[in-house]
């Protein structure tokens, strides 16, 4: 069953339609969540207008003043790919760079370490332990794969502050979760896809079929269906739950994306880490478009050759979370950080680089305002 939201000017009506879930011959965990049964479609989708929200109801949260971080020693433990992945880790690196530029954190007081493909859980734990033992405080773990390690090492070093991106399962007084409303930003790029599609068929490609990446799919599908209730959303995952190779398998991503484009999809949203590069390559070959994730991937130096297929990116502001966390540690205000980073505090959003969504920016901002105001509640589950 899927819920379709028909959004009119100033009011909502909800229609519930039963739909068959078709299995795509793209991957073992592929599926079609749209109304078109996965068949190629042509022509314009029937689209509905975004809601109108009073400006006073959609005000973002006020910014926190900058503190002095010159006395801190800050370490980042990256996930696979590290700085230079043009995605998730690069966003964290940008947050660290900003602390150096704006908070007075000396560059020599920073340390960066990176996970390796196929390493054991103990390797991640030892990486965190080494950073803490060298006196870095705070230590920021970039990615949920570090959850067990953070839990272990934070108990061993109770006077060291730790933060972990994308995980809130470690319940210790010296551990701060940095989690996001990925579904909210994904709703906006789903709306963008529905406003731009010429086939009324769009795609989603996730790196790993787990609850975190399912949030991207859920929001994207809901945003697309809010704009065009009859749209088809073809969804696929590169690897199943527990197999993290999907975040670093550009070849498989190209295969899946090529299948989607051959089947009639003309825009596909990739939430797959470094594998996104394979989706962009497929879009470039097919003469179609794609949507990036985490960073503004149009601006990534590593993606210059395919940048013109990236019509927008769902920006997950890991840079904001890293910066705000270090700022809070420096100012002694960690307890005032938001429970999650969302549209209201600039934790997620969409990019406009390249000008490909300039003509629909007003509609996207209207949806953003409605989400901030609470008039649209975006589901985090598919």
UniProtKB/TrEMBL annotation:
The keyword Lipoprotein applies. CDD domains: PBP1_PrnA-like. Residues 79-380 form the ABC transporter substrate-binding protein PnrA-like domain. Keywords: Cell membrane, Lipoprotein, Membrane, Signal. The keyword Glycoprotein does not apply. Transmembrane segments: none annotated. Residues 1-27 form the signal peptide. It is found in: Cell membrane. Residues 103-123 are annotated as: Disordered. PANTHER family: ABC TRANSPORTER GUANOSINE-BINDING PROTEIN NUPN, TRANSCRIPTIONAL ACTIVATOR PROTEIN MED. This is BMP family ABC transporter substrate-binding protein. It comes from Pseudonocardia nematodicida. The lineage of its organism: Bacteria, Bacillati, Actinomycetota, Actinomycetes, Pseudonocardiales.
């Amino acid at each position: 069953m899927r819920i379709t939201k028909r959004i009119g000017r100033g009011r909502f009506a909800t229609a519930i339609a039963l739909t068959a879930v078709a299995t795509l011959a793209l991957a073992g965990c592929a599926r079609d969540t749209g109304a078109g049964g996965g068949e190629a479609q042509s022509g314009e989708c029937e689209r509905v207008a975004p809601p109108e929200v009073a400006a006073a109801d959609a005000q973002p949260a006020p910014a926190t003043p900058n503190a002095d971080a010159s006395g801190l020693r800050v370490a980042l433990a990256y996930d696979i790919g590290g700085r230079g992945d043009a995605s998730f880790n690069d966003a964290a690196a940008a947050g660290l760079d900003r602390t150096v530029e704006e908070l007075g954190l000396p560059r020599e007081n920073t340390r960066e370490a990176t996970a390796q493909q196929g390493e054991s859980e103990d390797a991640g734990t030892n990486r965190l332990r080494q950073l803490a033992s060298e006196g870095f405080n705070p230590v920021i773990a970039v990615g949920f794969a570090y959850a067990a390690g953070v839990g272990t090492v934070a108990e061993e070093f109770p006077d060291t502050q730790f933060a972990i991106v994308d995980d809130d399962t470690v319940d210790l007084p010296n551990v701060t979760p940095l989690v996001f409303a990925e579904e909210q930003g994904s709703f906006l790029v789903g709306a963008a896809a529905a406003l731009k599609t010429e086939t009324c068929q769009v795609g989603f490609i996730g790196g790993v079929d787990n609850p975190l990446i399912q949030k991207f799919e859920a929001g994207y599908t809901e945003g697309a269906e809010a704009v065009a209730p009859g749209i088809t959303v073809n969804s696929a995952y590169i690897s199943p739950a527990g197999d993290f190779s999907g975040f670093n398998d550009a070849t498989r991503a190209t295969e899946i994306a090529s299948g989607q484009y051959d089947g009639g999809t003309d825009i596909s949203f990739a939430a797959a880490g470094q594998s996104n590069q394979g989706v962009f390559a497929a879009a470039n070959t097919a003469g179609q478009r794609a949507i990036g994730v985490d960073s503004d991937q149009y601006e990534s130096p590593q993606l210059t050759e395919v940048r013109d297929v990236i019509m927008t990116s769902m920006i997950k502001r890991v840079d904001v979370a890293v910066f705000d966390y270090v700022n809070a540690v420096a100012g002694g205000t960690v307890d005032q950080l938001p429970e999650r980073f969302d549209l209201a505090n600039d934790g997620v959003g969409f990019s406009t680089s390249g000008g490909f969504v300039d003509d629909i920016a007003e509609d996207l901002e209207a949806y953003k305002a409605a989400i901030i105001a609470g008039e649209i509640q975006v589901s985090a589950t598919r």
